[in-house]
C-alpha cells in the first residue's frame, strides 16, 4: 500500500473534463447527479469563472483525499501491526508522527477553504456547498466500486513504513498549496501551462 496513489484517486472525480460530459442514456447515479448539478451551476459563468470554480472544487478534492489517505494508512498500520508484531510499535509511532505533521495543516487548509467558499464571488456560497456535497457523494460512490485490500506481508508493511518517511513532507507541501488564494493557484497553473506550450514549440 502506498500513500501517493491514494491521493491520485480523487482525480477521478475532480477534473473538469468529467463535469463537461454527460451521457443522456446513462442511469442516474451519485456521479450523474453531481455532474448535472455542477453543470447547471456553472454553465452561465465566463471561462475564467469556470476555471476559478474548478480550482476551488479541486482544493476540496485534495483536502478530502488527504483525509482518505489518513484513514486508509491508519487502517493499514493496524493491520500490519496485527500480522507483524515486531513492526507494531515502530509503525504506530511513525504514523503518530505523520499525523502530528499532517493533521494541523489539514485542519488549517480545511478552515481556510470553508472561509474562501463564503467570500468568493463566483457563485452563491450555498449553491457551491450543495455541489461539493454532491461531489462527496459521487466520490464515495466511486470509491465503493474499488475493492481495497491491505497487503500485510512483512515486505509490504515495511514499504508502508518507508512511504510515510517519503511522503510526509509532500503531504504538508500539498496542503500548504491549498492555503493559497484561488487566484494565485489559477495564475500559477496558467503560467505553467504557457511555459509548457512554449517549451513544446522550441523542440
The amount of beta strand, in percent, is under 5%
Total beta strands: 0
Biggest sheet details: none
The pLDDT mean sits at: 85
> What is the CA–CA distance across the termini?
38 Å
Poorly predicted runs are 1-25
| Secondary-structure-derived class | mainly alpha
Annotation field: number of helices: 8
Overall body shape: globular
SSE sequence, one letter per element: HHHHHHHH
Helix content: over 70%
How would you portray this structure in words?
Mean pLDDT is 85; it is low at 1-25. The chain has 8 helices and no strands. It is 79% helix and 0% strand. The chain has 203 residues and is mainly alpha-helical. The radius of gyration is 19 Å and the shape is globular. The chain has helices at residues 3-8, 16-20, 30-42, 47-83, 85-119, 125-144, 154-177, 182-202. The protein starts with a helix and ends with a helix. Helix 3 runs antiparallel to helix 6 (125-144).
SSE diagram, text form:
Elements: H1 3-8, H2 16-20, H3 30-42, H4 47-83, H5 85-119, H6 125-144, H7 154-177, H8 182-202
Helix pairs in contact: 3-6, 4-5, 4-7, 4-8, 5-7
Compact summary:
With 203 residues, this protein is mainly alpha-helical. Helices cover 79% and strands 0% of the residues. The longest helix is centred in the first third of the chain and has 37 residues, at 47-83.
Amino acid at each position: 500500500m502506498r500513500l501517493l496513489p491514494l491521493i491520485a484517486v480523487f482525480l477521478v472525480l475532480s477534473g473538469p473534463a468529467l463535469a463537461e460530459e454527460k451521457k443522456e442514456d446513462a442511469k442516474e447515479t451519485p456521479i450523474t447527479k453531481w455532474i448535472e448539478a455542477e453543470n447547471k451551476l456553472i454553465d452561465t459563468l465566463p471561462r475564467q469563472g469556470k476555471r476559478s470554480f474548478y480550482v476551488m472544487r479541486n482544493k476540496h478534492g485534495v483536502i478530502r483525499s488527504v483525509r482518505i489517505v489518513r484513514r486508509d494508512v491508519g487502517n493499514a498500520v493496524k493491520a500490519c501491526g496485527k500480522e507483524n508484531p515486531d513492526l507494531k510499535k515502530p509503525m504506530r509511532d511513525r504514523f503518530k508522527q505523520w499525523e502530528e505533521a499532517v493533521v494541523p495543516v489539514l485542519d488549517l487548509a480545511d478552515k481556510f477553504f470553508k472561509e474562501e467558499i463564503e467570500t468568493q464571488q463566483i457563485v452563491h456560497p450555498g449553491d457551491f456547498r450543495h455541489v461539493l456535497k454532491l461531489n462527496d457523494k459521487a466520490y464515495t460512490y466511486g470509491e465503493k466500486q474499488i475493492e481495497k485490500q491491505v497487503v500485510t506481508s512483512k515486505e509490504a508493511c515495511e514499504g508502508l513504513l518507508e512511504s510515510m518517511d517519503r511522503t510526509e513532507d509532500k503531504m504538508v507541501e500539498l496542503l500548504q498549496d491549498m492555503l493559497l488564494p484561488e487566484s494565485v493557484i489559477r495564475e500559477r497553473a496558467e503560467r505553467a501551462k504557457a511555459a509548457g506550450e512554449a517549451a513544446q514549440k522550441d523542440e
